[in-house]
Inverse folding.
């Protein structure tokens, strides 16, 4: 039987965190520093506690025992979300080359998968901060932040990757040697951002891995990495910090590259034998999935959930479960991936700390940039001096001492900026930089798009609204290099264009209370003129501290204009 989220919360005994129930939280009376475990899943699209299906019992238990942040936002793509979490900063705060080379001549930032976590650009990310403050730190799983080490490590990875591309026998000693070389350099590079211990590391999406033979999901390999770290913790007289990021449920989605694959294959190479004993078998996963749907489509999330359950069981066996702050989230949701819409930018976040918190649903506006500063407070660590953090400390909200930490929150993607307010309205501003719109390649892209639509007699309404309609057509910006994702829904392959019919509107206003699916744009309705002006004012205020420019919401003077023009020329000498 399917249940909606409200019904599920009632079944598990959840309380809604309202002013009347704010005192359900215990005061923070701990004296020993808490441990921290952050679990980040990838493109997760099925949540048992939201769908009512028996797909994620272990995650559901974390929800039942924790605080469910039902209005949590992020930057709706894998890389910038991880940057948000690990730095406490908005994507536009990134100083990486990848980010700066995508800034327009006017100084407008283009947020995509371009927030690298390089130690020279980010001197004190969260792992290093916890390491400096006496924590034993572990990083396991998918990094997806283009973490680069020193020159020697980078050269070692490049050499090994080139060798691996030419090897056809993945069982050969040569393959194993080069894969070990690649993994060693990759793991060593992560030490530069503050991880004492690393295991089961995947640099990015599996299709971009070093060898096509081992670019497969292997949840057991990842779970083992986390369990091995927790085993190592017993040798340390320190509190611990674990960042655990999975490859599931991101693609590839074919069973032949996941549950049906040779269990000896993983991103670390070809194992001597399958990993067993850390979580239920793959056969068990597929049996349980078949009981829910005939096609077993929930196998990947059940497999993922088993791994998370194994970590929680290990914490309990260690006697560390009560004094470990567990933060669980997906890096974003999927229907609006690569956009400012709630279908991508709003994501389930749960904070569990049974020693100090009681369970409940919290409706406060929050963002993944808040995780770092909140943990600093909860763990009783000193306030970092001279370190930029854009997020807010949400500790008082979690303790029930206040209901909101902010009235409005900023969401970023491509050429869009959005503001969400505590009364549950959202405004999205889509502003393409003039220098980009006037570019010859954009004009060519528009002409090709219009020509294809006319020649093939395509239905534009269906292109925008029907998720099953996939004509071979290239949208404007999709072929224009560094401007690929400047539309509010990312490239035409991203799912947002299937769900949001006003995706190209310059101004978009939604009442999320009445229209959670963001289908009814109120921005051009006279009766919402005052509300629109109010939301634009919020966005102007939030943009004030952001670098660069953003149309009428953030203008810059001549000196700064010259700086960004020179920055553009630095990276684009052929334009």
């Amino acid at each position: 039987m399917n249940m909606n989220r409200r019904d599920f919360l009632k079944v598990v005994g959840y309380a809604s965190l309202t002013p009347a129930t704010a005192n359900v939280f215990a005061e923070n009376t701990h004296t020993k520093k808490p441990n921290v475990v952050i679990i980040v899943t990838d493109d997760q699209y099925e949540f048992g506690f939201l769908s009512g299906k028996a797909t994620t019992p272990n995650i559901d238990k974390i929800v039942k025992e924790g605080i469910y942040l039902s209005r949590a936002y992020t930057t709706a793509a894998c890389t910038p979300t991880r940057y948000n979490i690990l730095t406490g900063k908005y994507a536009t705060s990134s100083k990486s080359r990848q980010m700066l080379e995508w800034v327009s001549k006017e100084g407008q930032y283009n947020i995509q998968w371009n927030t690298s976590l390089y130690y020279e650009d980010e001197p004190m990310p969260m792992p290093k901060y916890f390491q400096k403050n006496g924590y034993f730190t572990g990083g396991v799983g998918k990094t997806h932040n283009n973490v680069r080490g020193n020159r020697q490590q980078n050269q070692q990875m490049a050499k090994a990757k080139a060798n691996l591309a030419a090897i056809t026998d993945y069982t050969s000693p040569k393959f194993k040697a080069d894969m070990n070389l690649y993994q060693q350099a990759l793991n060593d590079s992560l030490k530069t951002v503050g991880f004492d211990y690393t295991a089961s590391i995947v640099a990015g999406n599996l299709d971009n891995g070093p060898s096509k033979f081992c670019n497969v999901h292997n949840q057991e390999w990842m779970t083992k990495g986390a369990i091995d770290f927790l085993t190592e913790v017993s040798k340390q007289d320190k509190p611990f910090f674990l960042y655990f990021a999975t490859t599931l449920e991101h693609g590839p989605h074919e069973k032949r590259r996941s549950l049906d694959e040779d269990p000896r294959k993983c991103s670390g190479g070809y194992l001597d034998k399958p990993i067993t004993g850390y979580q239920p078998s793959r056969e068990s996963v597929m049996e349980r999935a078949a009981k829910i749907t005939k096609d077993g489509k929930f196998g990947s999330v059940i497999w993922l959930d088993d791994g998370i359950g194994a970590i929680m069981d290990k914490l309990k066996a260690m006697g560390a479960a009560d004094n470990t702050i567990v933060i669980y989230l997906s890096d974003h949701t999927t229907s609006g991936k690569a956009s400012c819409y709630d279908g991508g930018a709003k994501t389930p976040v749960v904070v569990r700390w049974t020693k100090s918190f009681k369970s409940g649903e919290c409706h406060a506006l929050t963002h993944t940039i808040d995780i770092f500063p909140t943990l600093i407070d909860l763990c009783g660590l000193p306030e970092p001096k001279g370190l930029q953090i854009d997020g807010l400390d949400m500790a008082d909200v979690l303790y029930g001492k206040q209901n909101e930490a902010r009235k409005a929150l900023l969401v970023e993607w491509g050429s869009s900026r959005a503001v969400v307010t505590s009364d549950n309205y959202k405004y999205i501003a889509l502003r393409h930089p003039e220098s980009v719109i006037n570019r010859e390649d954009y004009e060519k892209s528009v002409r090709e798009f219009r020509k294809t639509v006319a020649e093939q007699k395509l239905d534009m309404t269906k292109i925008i609204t029907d998720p099953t309609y996939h004509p071979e057509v290239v949208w404007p910006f999709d072929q224009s290099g560094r401007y690929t994702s400047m539309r509010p829904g990312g490239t035409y392959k991203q799912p947002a264009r299937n769900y949001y019919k006003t995706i190209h509107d310059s101004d978009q206003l939604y009442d999320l209370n009445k229209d959670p699916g963001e289908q009814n744009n109120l921005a051009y309705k006279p009766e919402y003129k005052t509300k629109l002006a109010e939301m634009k004012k919020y966005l102007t205020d939030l943009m004030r501290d952001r670098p660069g420019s953003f149309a009428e919401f953030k203008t810059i003077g001549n000196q700064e204009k010259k700086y960004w023009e020179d920055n553009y020329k630095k990276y684009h000498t052929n334009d």
